[in-house]
């Protein structure tokens, strides 16, 4: 059945493409955060273990919201590791970094998600896609706050 929500199929496709990149970044950051949760050690173990769990739990819920928005726009959501690797701006890390490096890498991942979300706004604004803009705003708020909290652990 044809989708008639006031946004052309071409524009919905552009938005879905951007959201697919955000989905890939979010899922990649989820995996990285979960990996670091399992493997962190050192004097900040308890703090980081709990913080990383909070972050990956939130990311696990976020991927569903992003994928469902892609589906709402009428396009398939990417869902394979191969697709995520191709779409994500966040790269995997080799080995198990030291705790401070984990924090730094997660700050970079959180900020990458913000940049990806921000890059989708022009097409949302042009097409009056407020639901996607709202989702992007929420994601940016979470990622910016997480980046700040992580960054704060490296100061002082």
UniProtKB/TrEMBL annotation:
DNA-binding is among the record's keywords: yes
Gene Ontology MF term list: DNA binding; ferric iron binding; oxidoreductase activity, acting on metal ions
Pfam family, one: Ferritin
Domain Ferritin/DPS: 17-155
Keyword DNA-binding set for record: yes
Alphabetized InterPro entries for the sequence: DPS_DNA-bd, DPS_DNA-bd_CS, Ferritin-like, Ferritin-like_SF, Ferritin_DPS_dom
Keywords: DNA-binding
Transmembrane segments: none
PANTHER family referenced in this protein's UniProt entry, alphabetically: DNA PROTECTION DURING STARVATION PROTEIN, GENERAL STRESS PROTEIN 20U
Family listed: Belongs to the Dps family.
Name under which the protein is recorded: Starvation-inducible DNA-binding protein
